[in-house]
């Protein structure tokens, strides 16, 4: 395996699946230049965050045939307005932000939540703290060394 640039990845992929958080750096990560870079046989899948994809650019890409289609579990505005053009394309599959839900994911999510709670109750920071700026500002003296779920699950 070798690392490639985003441009090379988009040029070579039949399926582009987005799995990253929305931030200032990733907002509209996929816009018109990226969609034009993809092949006409490429499908774009977004189950992460709606703001990763510029929806107006995606509509143009689908209208012009720059890509083959899209699978969208998220939209820039949720719930999407009924007039959102993406809902009318026959080559777009859309789900109500539930594509990650399965019979396996629900118990796994519960186990991870329980493990994180157990760590916190034992004075340890759980992994994957989304707002690390709270460290040092809590009334509870959390230890700075993070432990993995595997050691406490």
Describe the model.
This protein has 153 residues and is of the alpha/beta class. It folds into two domains: 6-94, Rossmann fold; 105-151, no CATH class. The protein is built from four helices and four strands; from the N terminus they run αβαβαββα. The chain has helices spanning 6-12, 32-37, 55-64, 105-121; strands at residues 15-18, 43-46, 69-72, 92-94. The protein has a four-stranded parallel β-sheet, with no helix packed on it. The protein is elongated. The two termini are 32 Å apart. The relative contact order is 0.10.
Topology (elements, then pairings):
Layout: H1 6-12, E1 15-18, H2 32-37, E2 43-46, H3 55-64, E3 69-72, E4 92-94, H4 105-121
Parallel strand pairs: 1-2, 2-3, 3-4
Query: What order do the strands of the largest sheet run in, or round the barrel if closed?
Result: 1-2-3-4
In whole angstroms, how far apart are the ends?
32 Å
CATH names the topology of the largest domain as: Rossmann fold
Number of domains: 2
Quick structural summary:
The chain has 153 residues and is an alpha/beta fold.
Keyword list:
2 domains; 26% helix; alpha/beta; 4 helices; 153 residues; 4-stranded parallel beta sheet; single chain; Rossmann fold
């Amino acid at each position: 395996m070798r690392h490639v640039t985003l441009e090379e990845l988009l040029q070579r992929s039949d399926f582009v699946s987005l799995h990253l958080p929305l931030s200032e750096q990733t907002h509209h990560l996929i816009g018109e230049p990226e969609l034009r870079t993809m092949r006409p046989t490429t499908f774009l899948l977004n189950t992460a965050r709606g703001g990763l994809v510029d929806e107006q650019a995606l509509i143009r890409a689908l209208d012009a045939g720059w890509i083959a289609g899209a699978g969208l579990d998220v939209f820039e505005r949720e719930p999407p307005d009924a007039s959102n053009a993406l809902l009318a394309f026959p080559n777009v599959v859309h789900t109500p932000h539930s594509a990650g839900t399965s019979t396996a994911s629900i118990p796994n999510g519960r186990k991870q939540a329980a493990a994180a709670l157990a760590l916190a109750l034992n004075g340890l920071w759980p992994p994957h703290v989304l707002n690390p700026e709270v460290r040092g500002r809590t009334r509870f003296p959390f230890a700075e060394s993070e432990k993995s779920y595997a050691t406490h699950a």
